[in-house]
UniProtKB/TrEMBL annotation:
Highest taxon listed in the record's lineage: Bacteria
Organism: Extibacter muris
Entry protein name: UDP-galactopyranose mutase
EC number: 5.4.99.9
Alphabetical keyword list: FAD, Flavoprotein, Isomerase
Bilayer-crossing regions: none
Similarity field: Belongs to the UDP-galactopyranose/dTDP-fucopyranose mutase family.
Length: 364
């Protein structure tokens, strides 16, 4: 008999397992994929750590989280500074003085502010009825047309004029020449990839790969006292109230026989006519100098059951549906629900670390 059965070897399940083992509890981790790590899994190709399920940059403003995660890996000084490609032009992201200088030739923050205000005055509306009007009312036409429109339309699979304004509440503009995407004070990539970080968490813990808990529920329930379930909550309840919706992402990954393909880890393609949203060049996350390179084109994709669920669609319908499942979950005595799928919420890795630690504190 195990004290804990942990369903899913992603970041949440692995941290919980580590904490449980530390306290002397016996654990079994079951994972339906053929590898540990969930979506932060990285795989070595040509000496390069490839982020198989999308680019993952660890960032946090929480010192406790930062100290905690660094016991499992050494982090490098990677700083996320994506660039945007629009019809042959390159712009810095997030929107900052470098972006405005390239767009309009302005040099000082005062000039940039004036230019944006002019644009909003000329094209903005008081009560935006769709995403296009909303975005233009926030940053003006030029930034919207070149850097927001096509990217957002590809992400949502719909034209900006058909999307609700609420999707974009704010479009932060930064009046400094600072290309660092995140405002958090701690940021980096684990040297040697995320998988080895997870392997350290799971060191000494029994893990069964290629094991779908829901397919072997009865036997597995019988060999443990408690369960930590990090899979989709609606699947746990056999979709009895209906299906929660996600947006998915499709990756096309290839090895290129060149040393440096795009000079940056992340390049966003902001024009609608280019079908992918981003190209990731993985070696740049670790300042790699390997002779070859690996790139992944990212395509935003609709989701149907069986596809990889990436981004929860937290609209009114889905949130209400989730509440129904969550109230059933709250009545469970043996099962704890956690992680992005168990809580149907978009969590960054630092949120997951904090949530998993809180869950461990509460239950162990
Ligand atoms: P998961 O990693 O999904 O782990 C759940 C595990 O449970 C999976 O391995 C799954 O196979 C397994 N499982 C599910 N059902 C079953 C079952 N029935 N039986 C057995 N096993 C099961 N965060 C950042 O901080 N920075 C970033 O740059 C960043 N980029 C991202 C990019 C993309 C494209 C996406 C989608 C997310 C990104 N994130 C990022 C968020 C990050 O991926 C998550 O915070 C984190 O992976 C969530 O961990 P988890 O353990 O909750 O879920």
């Amino acid at each position: 008999m195990y004290d804990y059965l942990i369903v899913g070897s992603g970041l949440f399940g692995s941290i919980f397992a580590f904490e449980a083992r530390k306290k002397g509890y016996s654990c079994l981790v079951v994972e339906k994929r053929g590898h540990v790590g969930g979506n932060i899994y990285t795989k070595e190709v040509e000496g390069i750590q490839v982020h198989e399920y999308g680019a993952h940059i660890f960032h946090t403003g929480n010192k406790e989280v930062w100290e905690y995660i660094r016991q499992f890996a050494e982090f490098n000084r990677y700083t996320n500074s994506p660039i945007a490609y629009y019809k042959g032009e390159i712009y810095n992201m997030p929107f900052n003085m470098n972006t405005f200088n390239k767009m309009w030739g302005v040099v000082t923050p005062e000039q940039a502010r004036k230019k944006i205000a002019e644009q909003i005055e000329k094209y903005g509306v008081d009560e935006p009825k769709n995403l296009e009007e909303q975005a233009i009312s926030l940053v003006g036409k030029d930034i919207y047309e070149k850097l927001v429109k096509g990217y957002t339309e590809k992400q949502w699979g719909r034209r900006a004029t058909e999307l609700p304004p609420e999707i974009i509440r704010r479009l932060p503009v930064r009046m400094t020449y600072d290309n660092n995407y995140f405002n958090d004070c701690y940021q980096g990539i684990p040297i040697g990839g995320y998988t080895q970080m997870i392997e350290r968490m799971l060191d000494g813990i029994e893990v069964r790969l290629d094991t779908d808990y829901l397919e072997e529920k009865e036997e597995l329930d019988n060999i443990c006292h408690k369960i930590v379930y990090t899979g989709p909550i609606d699947a746990y309840y056999d979709y009895k109230y209906g299906e929660l919706e996600y947006r998915s992402v499709r990756f096309e990954t290839e090895v290129l026989d060149e040393e440096n393909h795009q000079g940056n880890a992340v390049v966003n393609y902001t024009e609608y006519e280019v079908p992918y949203t981003r190209i990731i060049e993985h070696k740049h996350f670790e300042f790699g100098t390997q002779p070859k390179t690996v790139v992944s084109k990212e395509y935003s994709a609709p989701w149907k059951r069986g596809d990889e669920p990436y981004y929860p669609v937290n609209n009114e319908r889905n949130n209400l549906l989730y509440e129904k499942y969550a109230s059933d979950a709250a009545r469970e005595e043996k099962v704890i629900f956690g992680g992005r799928l168990g809580k149907y919420k978009y969590y960054d890795m630092h949120h997951i670390v904090a949530e998993a630690l809180a869950c461990a504190r509460e239950n162990l």
